C-alpha cells in the first residue's frame, strides 16, 4: 500500500487535485465524503502568505473531517517558501505540497509553478530546503517538463526523491501544452518503473471515467490517481471509480434528490465558511455539472448562477426538485 511519509493509504488511492477557486473546504468535504482518499487545497502564494494577505491566509483553513489534507504552496524564492512553510505548519495539515506545475503566465513569469521546470537545480534545492525545514511530509506536483524537447521527468523525480520528497504527482502534459491534447501517462509510468524510485508516483490528467482510472492502475502501474476536472460539480466520481474497481460495473449515477442535496450542502458550507456574498458567487461554477444533461434546464440554471441572494438559490433548488425530481440521469 502506498504511504506518504507515515500516512498510510489504501491500494491505488484517489486524490482530489488542487484546483484554484474549486478545492476549497466545502468542496473538499464533499469529495472526502464521496471517496477521495487525500485532498489538497488550491495553490497558495508563498509571497501572499508572508505578506499576510487575507485571501492567501483564508485558503489555509482546513477541517478535521477532511484529513489527510495537503496544503499546496507555490513560489520561486527560497526565503519566502521557507517562511511560508512555518505559516502553513500552524494550520496543521498532514502534507505540504509544492506546486511546480502551474502553467499560467502570471505564475510562470516569476519562475514559479511550471516556470521552475526550466531550472531543475532550483526545483531540487527548494524541495531539499523545505524538507529540512519541516517534519511534515513534503510532496511535489508537477508536469512532464517545460516542453516536449525538455522532458526529463525520470531524472527530476529521482532527484526530488533523493532530497526527501515523499510523493510525486505528475500531470501528463508539458507546460507548453497547457491543457491541450491528451495527457500522456507513458513518461509517468517511466518514472514509476525506475528501479530506484520508492516513493508513490501518482498520475494526473484526463482521469475522467472509471475505465481511465483502471487503465492508469493496471496498464500504467501507477500508485494512485489524482483527479481534477472530473470531480468539479461531481464529487461522486471518487466512489464511482471505487465501485467500478470492486465490481467491474458502473455505479448508478446520483438521482436528482442526491444532486440537489449536494448542491444545497455545498452552498451552505460555502456560506458558513466565507459568507453569503462569496459563498453564493463561488459555488456557481459547480451547478452546471451537478445538473448536467437535464433538458430545458436553462431557466433554472440562470436563476442559480445570476442570483446574489442565497435564499433565491435555495428556492431554485427546491423548484428543480419539484419539477425534475423524476429525471433519470444516465451513467
Ligand atoms: C479550475 C482549475 C484550477 C486549477 N488549479 C490548480 C492549482 O491551484 N494547483 C495545481 O497544482 N493545479 C491546478 N490545476 C491543475 C489540476 O490540478 C490538474 O493537474 C489538471 O486539471 C489535470 O487533471 P484533470 O484532467 O483530472 O483535470 C487546476 C485545474 C483547473 C481545471
From TrEMBL:
Entry keyword set: Flavoprotein, FMN, NADP, Nucleotide-binding, Oxidoreductase, RNA-binding, tRNA processing, tRNA-binding
InterPro entries recorded: Aldolase_TIM, DUS-like_FMN-bd, DUS_fam, DusB-like, tRNA-dHydroUridine_Synthase_C, tRNA_hU_synthase_CS
Cross-referenced Pfam families: Dus
Keyword Glycosyltransferase annotated: no
EC primary class: oxidoreductase
Enzyme Commission numbers on file: 1.3.1.-
Necessary cofactors: FMN
Active site (record annotation): 102 (proton donor)
PROSITE patterns membership: UPF0034
Binding site for FMN: 72, 141, 171, 228-229
Catalysed reaction equations from the record: a 5,6-dihydrouridine in tRNA + NAD(+) = a uridine in tRNA + NADH + H(+); a 5,6-dihydrouridine in tRNA + NADP(+) = a uridine in tRNA + NADPH + H(+)
Molecular function terms from GO: flavin adenine dinucleotide binding; tRNA binding; tRNA dihydrouridine synthase activity
Purpose: Catalyzes the synthesis of 5,6-dihydrouridine (D), a modified base found in the D-loop of most tRNAs, via the reduction of the C5-C6 double bond in target uridines.
Family: Belongs to the dus family.
PANTHER family: TRNA-DIHYDROURIDINE(47) SYNTHASE [NAD(P)(+)]-LIKE
UniProt protein name: tRNA-dihydrouridine synthase
